[in-house]
Design goal:
Oligomer: single chain
Distance between the termini: 5 Å
Organism: Rhizoclosmatium globosum
Domain Plastocyanin-like: 62-171, 180-319, 428-499
CATH superfamily of the largest domain: Cupredoxins -  blue copper proteins
CATH topology of the largest domain: Immunoglobulin-like
Pfam families: Cu-oxidase, Cu-oxidase_2, Cu-oxidase_3
Structural class: mainly beta
Number of helices: 3
Largest sheet: 7 strands, mixed
Strand content: 35-45%
CATH architecture of the largest domain: Sandwich
InterPro entries: Cu-oxidase-like_N, Cu-oxidase_2nd, Cu-oxidase_C, Cu-oxidase_fam, Cupredoxin
Number of strands: 31
Transmembrane segments: 7-29
């Protein structure tokens, strides 16, 4: 989700496509809930069981980049991690001690048999009021890999309600190829609350953040601080302490409102092994792009000289036409320190050298579908178009969506927050607004084509499913079907960048057997 025109809830571009296959709405308060705040980065997995956690949500004043800000935190910290094992049943008690209502989404979790636990506010559930508690209960099923949890109401996660959700796999095919794990979170950071940023922002270009964060730390240039705002210079950066000779699995999660990054580590290459909870063919690169909501796992061997090296997450400029007129002090070169044990406690002087960067459209699934095994017939087809238009009456940029399927069509629609959850209205047979549409489908394969006519790329995330990327291109009226052909296996994931400008198109297909919810970033 974005906190501007790309932020689904606020800007009005959110489509809920709910499938009526024995769904029910369940919303209740916890009974005899217990909690656990244990987290780990070890490779070993505990036995399968019921895992119980508690997220106590509060407002707290924190300093992440040199400037103080009131944020919304879980258990008093940013990026509170949840660690479970494949097959675990999970119970998370969410205690809302904030002065606003909220909901929590488990990003990337399929929620098989429990779609009402997905957490999309007013789509699958009502809000958790201030002072109330809700226990989410769901199974991890057969899923493995790197996910995250976050608020799914308004723009709250931008202000801190978010964290990693890691599903450890005892059968991990790459388990023998790394020694330790490190979680890395990336985010853009705004000094004002996202609500205040949105109130003042009406235009097509994204509001620029003041800084970027790696594991909750950044460094703002205090020379740009607004009058009357205190700033602590040279804010400390995140340091990753590593041992020469060891191999590290980095689970990298982009929790940004809108920022995409290019990730690299000076003096080291990386082997990509996972994207969005799906094992990939091992692919060696020097750098890779990661868009909002996406996750990657890479293996890095600490085989360089004992020293300090820059860990770089270079923010892509989506905030200005030229890339030179952002005036709020944001440094697009977000950094942390990759420090070998035995190296001096000082900033690196290393130099970036990128020779091979990842092509996200060709990173195939490990042992996945090939051109000869992927289905050629579909039970259903959905054609989806995303447009930004200028409204002369309100002097604002308006986001609209057009969707065409065999059973439901709507044109030029903007999202309206419904008075009741869409899932509830669907089951009761109530009329729905244009932007909340039920598309009855049968179990089987669904073909989806997404067209982006905006002047920046957009990320599309699918709730409850992963999909295969089978076509991508930039065309005005026509896309050659199955344009992703030079791959051993097709990519499978739950979030994908759709190219910018007129006719940027992405084609995908998925198995449809549960609740489906599409978010636009």
């Amino acid at each position: 989700m974005q906190i501007d025109r790309k932020y689904a809830i606020i800007a009005g571009i959110f489509v809920a496509v709910c499938v009526a296959i024995g769904l029910g709405v369940k919303f209740g308060l916890p009974q005899n809930a217990t909690s656990s705040t244990t987290s780990t980065t070890s490779k070993s997995a505990s036995s399968l069981s019921v895992k119980q956690f508690s997220l106590v949500l509060t407002h707290q004043l924190v300093n992440l980049d040199g400037v103080w800000k009131w944020m919304m935190l879980a258990n008093g910290q940013l990026d509170f991690p949840i660690h479970v094992v494949t097959g675990d049943f999970v119970e998370v008690e969410v205690v809302n001690r904030m002065n606003v209502s909220t909901s929590i989404h488990w990003h990337g979790l399929f929620q098989e048999d429990t779609p009402w636990m997905d957490g999309a506010a007013m789509v699958t559930q009502g809000l958790i009021p201030s002072g109330e508690t809700l226990v989410y209960k769901f199974s991890t099923g057969n899923q493995t890999g790197s996910y995250w949890w976050h608020a799914h109401y308004a723009s709250q996660y931008v202000d801190g309600i978010r964290g990693p959700f890691i599903i450890h796999d005892p059968q991990d095919p790459y388990l023998s190829q790394y020694d330790e794990e490190i979680i890395v979170t990336l985010a853009d950071h705004f000094h004002r609350s996202s609500e205040n940023v949105l109130k003042e922002y009406l235009y097509a270009y994204d509001p620029a953040p003041e800084s970027g964060l790696i594991n909750g730390r950044g460094r703002y240039d205090c020379n740009y601080t607004a009058q009357g705002v205190s700033c602590i210079p040279n804010s400390p950066l995140t340091v990753f302490n590593v041992t020469q000779g060891k191999r590290y699995r980095l689970r990298i999660i982009n929790e940004s409102a809108q920022a995409a990054f290019t990730v690299s580590i000076d003096g080291h290459n990386m082997t990509v092994i996972e994207q969005d909870g799906v094992y990939t063919n091992p692919t060696v690169v020097d750098a890779f792009p990661i868009a909002t909501s996406q996750r990657y796992s890479v293996i890095v061997t600490a085989n360089s000289a004992i020293d300090n090296y820059w860990f770089r997450a270079t923010m892509m400029d989506m905030y200005s036409p030229t890339g030179t007129d952002v005036q709020n002090g944001v440094d697009f070169n977000v950094k942390a320190v990759w420090r070998y044990n035995g190296a001096k406690d000082q900033d690196p002087t290393s130099i970036q050298n990128i020779r091979t960067s990842l092509n996200v459209y060709t990173l195939g699934e490990l042992n996945g579908l090939t051109a000869s095994t992927i289905p050629t017939n579909y039970n259903n087809s959905i054609y989806f178009s995303f447009t930004i238009a200028y409204d002369p009456i309100t002097n604002a940029s308006v986001s609209t969506v057009t969707l065409i399927s065999g059973t439901s069509n709507f044109y030029g629609s903007s999202y309206q927050m419904p008075p009741r959850p869409t899932l509830q209205d669907m089951l009761l047979g109530n009329p729905l607004p244009d932007s909340s549409n039920v598309i009855p489908v049968t179990n089987g394969w669904v073909f989806m084509q997404i067209r982006n006519t905006d002047n920046v790329e957009h990320v599309f995330h699918l709730h409850g499913h992963t999909f295969y990327v089978i076509g991508v291109g930039k065309v005005l009226h026509k896309l050659t079907h199955r344009s992703v052909t030079k791959v051993a296996t097709f990519p499978r994931r739950d979030a994908i960048q759709v190219p910018l400008c007129t006719g940027g198109v992405q084609e995908g297909m998925m198995r449809q057997d549960a609740y489906l919810d599409l978010s636009i970033f």
